[in-house]
């Protein structure tokens, strides 16, 4: 199906319709703003040209590029005339004779960042002046009620400005374009420098880089000033790997130029090469001892090295960084180093690759701190994550290699088995990032479809928070409903701790569902839909699998009944008998009706009973929370607390208790806090202090909260500040 154009109208009417009438513009935007299109990172020169006449409506022209010239200045339109951030740009473009309507098309550009230093319309006209030649990559054509438009949602990736008269896609029929283009372009290297600097000042770093490259290619490839400016543009574009070789060339020519050292330091720092970054800044300080940025980043390099080598982090400071960027869903990053603890990569018998610990680690050990790829607010995930990931792998070869070996479906696993690879990768604690870079999976092209599958099977969603993304090293951790590690996010960094003692060479397992999903059917359905996990071999699932299909189906129905009857109401004492009847019905579906271990189907109704008792019977409420511990498989030895003399002194006590044989859950945080709270109310102070210590540890492992942050949160929920004044600790015994 070809485009629907306005051949029954005059050209002037067409231009007036799409440029000057803001209401029509709003309608166009509303119709196309929901279109999802993953941007390409392929250069326009590598795509096949397509003519306007050959475009099809409601089609994304994958692998094609539209070479066009703008007709008249661009025009700004807005859904909200008082908010420029909701504006979009309208262009009229042509790829030939503008008097022939078949050659003319409307383009709507969303998400274009203007400098914001002058009137919006003037800045738009400067960004897209009349006669500028554009390469629109993989044009997304959308049919409106009256005509078709090209929708551009990612202008930084989807548009290239052609400023080279020898561009491979400027053919004979573009002779007049070449002539006008040549007339507008600089005639010497200084002109290219000034033009590039102007774009750089506007924040158009890609266009600035193009100008510097054209100046270097056309006049003097060794021009130091243009190379220095190119280094700045590459840095602004976050193409850090390309900064290093260029910076080394410049250092040979300009050994006293502080800008080279500063830019090299930033590039090394962004790549996590902190020793090299520190060395660059120290050399800079020898030339300019008071250079503030060098002083600051020399200190930061020391902090990052301490984090990377020893796993020592200031979580409160990191969380404050994340809050400062939380207003922008595309800047969820924090400044801290990655960390790989006593961890190794293995090939499992049934679940592909996995991670193990290389030595015995106790509960609470920090195992991994990992930086995510494509991290952003979950609201924007579907549309923008593929583009962010493609941009990341374009600028960071290591990220590309890490992502390329992640699970992307059984079809790719089957393909990888046919690839000959004689290398046997090995790892140590310090080179996990280098492991499996020669894995057969890395040789399968990382195209759009595979990126989408990698996102499907490896995206991590933070519970009750909008953040999501892909974390390459943690993505190698296999699933168990009884995982032995916990994960929490601060910005784009994931922190992974052990939630029980883990023996050397034991596999690290994480609960992909993040929270307790009591029903076996609900767990497996969720795991299959989001991660392609079709079976789990954990003890909980083994118990469920031993029951009959009829019993499992009955429990699933009971869980649905519970959620329908009790989750949307304020629970009262009269509800307790109903909840107890529900629990008896659940127990009757178990093979071992009374002695069932890990009876997680009882977790929700028990929690509801505790809520019903909380204001009328504190003893029964406390007993109910102890029962919650039991059904979730967690045992706590209270003998140390019971044998200690009562003391209200705030001097910290180190309680001892046996290490849990079953891992903690996220919900354990609240269970421990409730046990502390109600124990304190009924005057069991030492028991309350022990459970408070357990709560503090669990909150730190599952949330990364400091004692101060815990106290602030719990004071708001009504916990006695006298209880929160205690700051005791826990030591586990085997």
Brief summary:
The chain has 734 residues and is of the alpha+beta class.
Give the overall pLDDT as a whole number: 84
What is the assembly state of the chains in this entry? single chain
* Count of β-strands: 23
| Strand proportion | 5-15%
Q: What is the CATH topology descriptor of the largest domain?
A: Serine Threonine Protein Phosphatase 5, Tetratricopeptide repeat
User: Which architecture of the largest domain would the CATH scheme give at its second level?
Assistant: Alpha Horseshoe
What is the straight-line distance between the termini?
72 Å
Radius of gyration: 31 Å
What is the number of helices?
28
Unreliable residue stretches: 1-35, 79-86, 420-430
**Which geometry do the CA atoms define?**
globular
Major beta-sheet overview = 10 strands, mixed
InterPro entries: Gramillin-biosynth_MTr, SET_dom, SET_dom_sf, TPR-like_helical_dom_sf, TPR_2, TPR_rpt
Organism: Cavenderia fasciculata
Keywords: Repeat, TPR repeat
TPR repeats: 258-291
Features:
disordered N terminus, 734 residues, OB fold (Dihydrolipoamide Acetyltransferase, E2P), Beta-clip-like, TPR-like_helical_dom_sf, SET domain-containing protein, TPR repeat, four-stranded antiparallel sheet, 23 strands, Serine Threonine Protein Phosphatase 5, Tetratricopeptide repeat, 28 helices, globular, alpha+beta
């Amino acid at each position: 199906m070809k485009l629907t154009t306005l051949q029954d109208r005059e050209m002037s009417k067409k231009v007036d319709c799409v440029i000057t009438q803001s209401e029509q513009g709003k309608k166009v935007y509303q119709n196309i703003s929901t279109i999802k299109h993953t941007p390409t990172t392929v250069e326009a020169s590598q795509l096949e040209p397509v003519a306007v006449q050959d475009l099809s409506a409601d089609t994304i022209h994958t692998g094609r590029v539209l070479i066009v010239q703008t007709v008249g200045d661009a025009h700004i339109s807005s859904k909200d005339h008082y908010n420029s951030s909701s504006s979009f740009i309208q262009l009229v473009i042509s790829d030939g004779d503008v008097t022939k309507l078949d050659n003319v098309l409307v383009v709507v550009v969303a998400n274009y960042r203007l400098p914001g230093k002058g009137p919006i319309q003037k800045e738009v006209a400067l960004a897209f002046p009349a006669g500028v030649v554009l390469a629109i990559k993989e044009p997304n054509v959308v049919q409106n009620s009256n005509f078709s438009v090209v929708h551009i949602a990612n202008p930084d990736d989807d548009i290239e400005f052609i400023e080279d008269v020898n561009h491979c896609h400027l053919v004979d029929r573009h002779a007049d374009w070449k002539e006008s283009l040549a007339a507008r372009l600089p005639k010497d290297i200084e002109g290219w420098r000034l033009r590039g600097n102007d774009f750089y000042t506007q924040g158009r770093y890609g266009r600035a880089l193009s100008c510097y490259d054209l100046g270097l290619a056309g006049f003097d490839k060794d021009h130091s000033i243009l190379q220095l400016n190119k280094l700045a543009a590459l840095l602004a574009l976050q193409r850090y790997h390309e900064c290093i070789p260029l910076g080394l060339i410049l250092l040979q020519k300009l050994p006293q130029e502080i800008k080279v050292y500063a830019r090299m330091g930033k590039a090394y720092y962004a790549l996590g090469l902190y020793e090299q970054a520190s060395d660059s800044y120290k050399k800079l300080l020898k030339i300019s001892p008071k250079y503030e940025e060098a002083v600051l980043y020399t200190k930061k390099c020391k902090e990052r090295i301490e984090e990377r080598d020893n796993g020592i982090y200031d979580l409160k400071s990191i969380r404050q960084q994340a809050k400062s960027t939380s207003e922008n869903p595309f800047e969820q990053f924090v400044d801290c180093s990655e960390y790989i603890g006593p961890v190794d990569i293995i090939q499992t018998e049934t679940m592909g690759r996995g991670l193990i610990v290389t030595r015995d680690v106790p509960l609470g050990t920090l195992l991994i701190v990992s930086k995510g790829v494509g991290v952003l607010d979950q609201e924007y995930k579907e549309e923008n994550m593929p583009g962010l990931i493609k941009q990341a792998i374009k600028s960071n070869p290591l990220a590309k290699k890490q992502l390329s070996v992640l699970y992307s479906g059984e079809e790719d696993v089957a393909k990888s088995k046919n690839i000959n690879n004689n290398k046997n990768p090995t790892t140590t604690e310090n080179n996990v990032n280098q492991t499996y870079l020669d894995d057969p999976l890395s040789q399968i092209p990382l195209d759009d479809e595979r990126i989408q599958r990698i996102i499907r099977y490896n995206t991590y969603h933070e519970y009750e928070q909008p953040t999501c993304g892909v974390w390459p090293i943690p993505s190698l951790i296999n699933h168990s409903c009884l995982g032995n590690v916990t994960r929490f996010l601060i910005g784009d960094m994931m922190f992974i701790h052990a939630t029980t003692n883990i023996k050397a060479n034991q596999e690290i397992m994480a609960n992909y569902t993040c929270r307790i999903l009591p029903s076996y059917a609900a767990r497996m359905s969720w795991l299959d839909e989001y991660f392609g996990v079709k079976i789990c071999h954990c003890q909980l699932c083994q118990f469920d699998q031993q029951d009959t299909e009829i019993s499992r189906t009955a429990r699933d129905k009971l869980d649905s009944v519970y959620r329908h009857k009790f989750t949307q109401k304020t629970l009262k004492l009269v509800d307790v008998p109903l909840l107890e009847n529900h629990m008896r019905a659940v127990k009757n579906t178990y093979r071992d009706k009374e002695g069932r271990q890990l009876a997680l189907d009882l977790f929700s109704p028990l929690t509801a009973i505790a809520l019903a008792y909380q204001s009328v019977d504190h003893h029964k409420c406390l007993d109910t929370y102890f029962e919650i511990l039991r059904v979730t498989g967690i045992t706590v030895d209270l003998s140390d607390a019971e044998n200690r003399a009562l003391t209200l002194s705030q001097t910290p006590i180190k309680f001892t208790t046996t290490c849990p044989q079953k891992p903690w859950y996220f919900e354990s945080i609240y269970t421990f806090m409730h046990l502390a709270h109600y124990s304190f109310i009924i005057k069991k102070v030492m028991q309350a202090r022990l459970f408070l210590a357990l709560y503090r540890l669990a909150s730190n492992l599952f949330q990364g909260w400091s004692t101060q942050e815990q106290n602030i949160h719990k004071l708001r929920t009504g916990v006695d500040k006298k209880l929160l004044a205690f700051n005791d600790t826990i030591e586990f015994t085997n």
